[in-house]
Automatic annotation (TrEMBL):
PANTHER family assigned: CATABOLIC 3-DEHYDROQUINASE
Species for this entry: Tepidimonas ignava
Protein name: 3-dehydroquinate dehydratase
Lineage start: Bacteria, Pseudomonadati, Pseudomonadota, Betaproteobacteria, Burkholderiales
Pathway: Metabolic intermediate biosynthesis; chorismate biosynthesis; chorismate from D-erythrose 4-phosphate and phosphoenolpyruvate: step 3/7
Site location (Transition state stabilizer): 17
Length: 153
C-alpha cells in the first residue's frame, strides 16, 4: 500500500538547522529511514518536501484522489511553520476527507514558544505525533499500517 511522507517548509534544512532542536539527521536520511521502516510494515513509502504552501496543497489533493480510488493508505505530514498559519492546508485536508493525514512534529511544540502551540492541522488530522524526534515519522507509519490492518479499534 502506498503512503506519502510529506514535509513542509525549512525541513529540507534538517541536519544543519537548529540541530539542538531538530537533531543531526538530514532529510535524505529521514526519508530513507521512512522507506525502510515502511517496507518492513508492508508499505511503499513515497516522499515529498516543499517550501511552498500550494505545492503541499497539490500533494494532498493528489493523494486524496488516490485514496478515493483505493490506491493509497494515507499521508504522514509535517507542515512545519504552516501548522500554525495555514487555513489553506486545513481546508485542503478537510476537502479530501476521509484521507487519513497524520500530523508529525519533530520537536515538542508545546514546550516551545506560544506561537507554536496552536495547530490548524490538528483538528483535521487523524491524529498527531509530537516531540519524539525523527521517530515520530516511523510511529505515524505504524499508525497507518495498524489502521489498514483493522487494528486499534
Ligand atoms: C516543526 C515545528 C514547527 O513549529 C516549526 O515551524 C518547524 C518544524 C517540528 O517538526 O518540530 O518547522 O514542525
Amino acid at each position: 500500500a502506498r503512503v506519502l511522507v510529506l514535509n513542509g517548509p525549512n525541513l529540507n534544512l534538517l541536519g544543519t538547522r537548529e540541530p539542538g532542536i531538530y537533531g543531526a539527521l538530514t532529510l535524505a536520511d529521514l526519508e530513507q529511514r521512512c522507506r525502510q521502516h515502511g517496507a518492513a510494515l508492508g508499505l511503499q513509502v513515497e516522499c515529498f518536501q516543499s517550501n511552498h504552501e500550494g505545492a503541499l496543497i497539490d500533494q494532498i489533493h493528489a493523494w486524496g484522489a488516490l485514496h478515493r480510488q483505493g490506491q493509497a493508505l494515507g499521508v504522514v505530514f509535517n507542515p512545519g511553520a504552516y501548522t500554525h498559519t495555514s487555513i489553506a492546508l486545513h481546508d485542503a485536508i478537510k476537502g479530501v476527507e476521509p484521507l487519513p493525514v497524520i500530523e508529525v512534529h519533530i520537536s515538542n511544540v508545546h514546550a516551545r514558544e506560544s506561537f507554536r502551540h496552536h495547530s490548524w492541522i490538528a483538528p483535521v488530522a487523524a491524529g498527531s505525533i509530537i516531540g519524539f524526534g525523527p521517530d515520530g515519522y516511523l510511529m505515524a507509519l505504524e499508525a497507518l499500517a495498524r489502521r489498514a490492518a483493522g487494528l486499534g479499534t
